[in-house]
Amino acid sequence: MLQRLLPFLSLIALFAGLSIGSPYFFTGTNLASVLRQTAVINIMALGMTLVIVAGGIDLSVGAILAFAGLAGAKAMESGAPVPAGIAVGVAAGLVWGLVNGLLTVRLKIAPFIVTLGTLGIIRGLALLYSGGLPVVGLPKGFGFLGEGTVAGAPFVLYVLVVCAILTHLILNYTKLGRYAYAIGSNREAALYAGIPVGFHTVAVYGICGALTGLAAMIEASRLMTGQPTAGQGYELQVIAAVVIGGGSLSGGEGTVAGTLVGAFIMGLLANGCDLLGISPYVQQAVIGAVIILAVTVDEIRKRKLSQS
Amino acid sequence: MLLTMAGIQKSFGGVRALDGCDLEVAAGKVHLLLGENGAGKSTLMKIAAGMYQPDAGVIRWRGEPVQLRRPAEAASIGVAMVHQESLLAPHLTVAENIFLGREPMRGGLLERRRMEREAAALIAEHRFPLQAGWRVERLSPAQKQLAEICRAIRAASSLLIFDEPTSSLAAGETAEVFRIVRTLRDRGMGVIYITHRMDELRAVGDRVTVLRDGRTVANGELADFTTEQLIRHMVGREVATLYERSPGQPGQELLRVEGDGVHFALRAGEIVGLAGLMGAGRTELCQAIFGLPGAPVRVWVQGREAAIRSPRDAAAAGIAFVTEDRQRTGLALSLPVRANVTLTNLGALARLGFLRARAEAGPVARLVERLRVRCESIEQPAGRLSGGNQQKAVLAKWLFRQARVFLFDEPTRGIDVAAKAEVFALLDELARGGAAVLMVSSELPELLQMADRILVMRTGRVAGELAQPATQEQILRYAAIGS
User: Fold this and answer.
1) In chain B, what are the domains?
2) Rounded to an integer, what distance in angstroms lies between the CA atom of residue B106 and that of residue B120?
3) pTM of the prediction?
4) Is the interface score ipTM higher than 0.90?
5) What's the rounded Cα separation, in Å, for the pair B62 and B78?
6) pLDDT for A91-131, tens place per residue?
7) DSSP 3-state of A177
8) Which one of A169, A178, A188 has the shortest CB-CB distance to B339?
């Protein structure tokens, strides 16, 4: 039990350590900025949790983020109201997610390969579609999504909480969630149990895409531009968040709470390194080491469990 | 004596596989190892080959006590095993596989030419229908075994273990394996030969050891035993009293199957046996009925034709498939028993799209109780149940779906005698409750005991149907000759 809580305890320890170590950490402005920074990765990681639980992986989420951000920004640039622009971004993400899902299911190719391919395709299309230039001139009101404050807390916090609750409900209280665990744990057995495996696999990628589309609009809102180069390397941070939170790349394991803890650990590490004046070069190495450490601890726990 | 194993014990997760096994193998003899499924033959041989560690007992090699902690250690003293399922690397060539782990090197580089030359010479010497440069994935099962034999000879092994080598082979290939076994013996090698097929004993064997329920129950010169005596030792008395069907009258037709050479029907309250040799197409027939890819069959459920294109359609039509390989196709091992059981019918738990956790635990607990699935709680991962309890969990899954037609593929494979009796009781209970059961089994005594009538398959077709009381000989004749 203690080991299961370890990621959460490390998050608290990290939080406490940083509060003592830096006078600037435990301040409203800093915490709000950590939340705003991690919200994007966090929301993407929620979708990725579903995909990884179902035994898949999506390497194209960083590229989807760029494409969806551009699509939404373009819509608003050409006069669409803000909610419609956000909807366009989410829809673009959804479509790419469905494409990823359909390709893995129809072509029967490993999702690692499929999404490695779509990563290139989507990023290329984003650059082509924007001519490599950012989309600017977005309506003022759009900034509220990423930078607004409601009742003293960043608006993105509410968005994140709603997304997390919905994802948690999907994973634990719907057929889709249960099927995702079953497919990830043993795809053959799921098929033999009469589950429409293909349909649910596509659905899971679709949700991941849609959440990435939402994250894309938050990112765009914070920068007030749509960037064709946005989100480069985000896929690795997102996957790392899921894995630190106990998700297994061989499928069948992962929780929303774990993923949130994983994403916040990474967010706090980055923020802490900044505050303590540790070079960004060292930061990268620290985060890498934390990933290996977290997974090692989790593996030891599972091995003990299977022996008892 | 080449190899002596005395008092060997081994348990897996609380299930005792070996309970004091003794075996003595001499050089220059073919030693038959007989026993029913689950008697412990394969476990004993995996211990001899260093793949498992015994919990207790002594192993001697040429009189000296040895510990075989890894397959490599067994290989280094000269024990080699030809496996039931090939353990060759499919993407490498025959030559590369023969030398795998013992590649000839010069100056840190592979001597490819020498490897191929020596492999070719070895193959030629034994007149094997193989070529050194062929990739293993393209070989037939028999050729793969020959490649494994080459590997064993090349490793200068003095004891060769064959684990049911002929189970996947055609008759001509079987004769070839016998010839090779005899040649190896005549060169002074010790051979342990595991088989299920009583008809092939006399063709190769010199000495024999019979295992039953993890113990050595007979041992000696093959010539001193009649085949009937050997069977009696293998079967013991347990099977005779394992289970007695309760009498009943079959009701209406629940399932009708029509395909190429396949026509039969199952009625409510009936257990129909499906016999046949390995590779006769029994599993494939079940898969086809269940909507998995295979030979096309037309299926009628309760008199109405059902278009079954996927397991989903089959499940919706009330058909359940309890597969042979529970770990691969039966259970999501990392998920709790609860989630496995309800997987087939989550719709029954949902209200407005949301699963009601409270509605789940009750029915699962009742099924677990009814089938006597032994688990710590319904939250225990299915992978940590014993084989018999996993089998019951798979059945619980389909009872939760309220299936009425049950296809059981080797329902007693890999489970102990006590669990077998329980599984039989459940089959009987299903039939009494008005379900139709198709029971695929290679265990003829079990079929004869449980089935109301027996269909026998041969090369993808139903070659005959036997009414009870039938005999093993009748079944085997249909299975082997088709009449």
Assistant:
1) 3-238 (3.40.50.300), 241-480 (3.40.50.300)
2) 20
3) 0.79
4) no
5) 11
6) 999 999 999 999 999 999 999 999 999 999 999 999 999 99
7) helix
8) A178
Evaluate whether A106 touches A205 at the Cβ level (below 8 Å). no
Q: What is the CA radius of gyration of chain B?
A: 24
Cα–Cα dist B137/B149, whole Å:
16
ω into B247 cis (within 30 of 0): no
**pLDDT > 70 fraction of chain A, expressed in percent and rounded:** 97
- Element (DSSP H or E) covering residue B435: none
> Are the C-beta atoms of residues A32 and A148 closer than 8 Å to each other?
no
Statement: residue B179 has pLDDT above 80: yes
8 Å CB contact between A269 and A14: yes
Question: Which is nearest to A212 in space by CA: A23, A68, A3, A15?
Answer: A68
Given a cut of 90, is residue B87 above it in pLDDT? no
Helix-then-strand count for chain A, H and E: 13, 2
Residue B40 DSSP label = S
Q: Are A198 and A79 in contact (CB under 8 A)?
A: no
Low-confidence ranges of chain A (pLDDT < 50): 308
Q: What is the pLDDT of residue B239?
A: 47
Q: What is the spatial distance between Cα A58 and Cα A40, in angstroms, rounded to a whole number?
A: 16
Question: Which of B324, B326, B335, B408 is best to mutate for the A interface (most A CBs within 10 A)?
Answer: B335
Q: Residue B223: pLDDT above 80?
A: yes
Buried-exposed string B290-321: b where 16+ CB fall within 10 A, e elsewhere: bbbebeebebbbbeeebebebbbbbbebbbbb
Chain A: give the shortest CA distance to residue B397, in Å.
8
DSSP string, A181-244: HHHHH-HHHHHHTT--HHHHHHHHHHHHHHHHHHHHHHHHHHHTSB-TTTTTTHHHHHHHHHHH
Which chain A residues touch B355 with a CB distance below 8 Å? 172-175, 178
| Interface size between A and B, measured as CB pairs under 8 A | 77
Number of H helices, E strands in chain B: 16, 24
Q: How does the average pLDDT of chain B come out, rounded? A: 87
User: B436-440 and B405-409: which strand pairing?
Assistant: parallel
User: What spatial distance separates the first Cα and last Cα of chain B, rounded to whole Å?
Assistant: 45
Question: Which region among A88-92, A259-263, B100-104, B112-116 has the lowest average model confidence (pLDDT)?
Answer: B100-104
Report d(CA A46, CA A255) in Å as an integer: 9
Residues with Cβ < 8 Å from B280, sequence gap 6 or more?
Answer: B457, B458, B459, B460, B479
- The amino acid at residue A230 is A
Amino acid identity at A1: M
- A39 to chain B, minimum CA–CA distance in Å? 27
Question: Coil, strand or helix: which one is A296?
Answer: helix
Architecture of domain A6-303 in this structure: Orthogonal Bundle (1.10)
User: How many Cβ atoms are within 10 Å of A281's Cβ, its own excluded?
Assistant: 7
Q: How far apart (Å, rounded) are the C-alpha atoms in residues A248 and A256?
A: 13
Judged by a CB distance cut-off of 8 A, whether residue A166 touches chain B is no
Distance CA B81, CA A72 (A): 64
Which chain B residue's Cα is nearest to A194?
B312
pLDDT (0 to 100) of residue B38:
66
Q: Which residues of A touch B357 (CB under 8 A)?
A: 173
B407: closest CA of chain A, how far (Å): 12
Q: Which pLDDT belongs to residue A196?
A: 94
Distances, alpha carbon B177 to alpha carbons A121, B183, B198, in Å: 54, 10, 16
What angle, rounded to 10 degrees, do the helices at A111-130 and A61-77 form? Answer: 30
* Helix residue ranges per DSSP H, B281-439: 282-289, 311-316, 337-342, 357-370, 387-400, 417-432
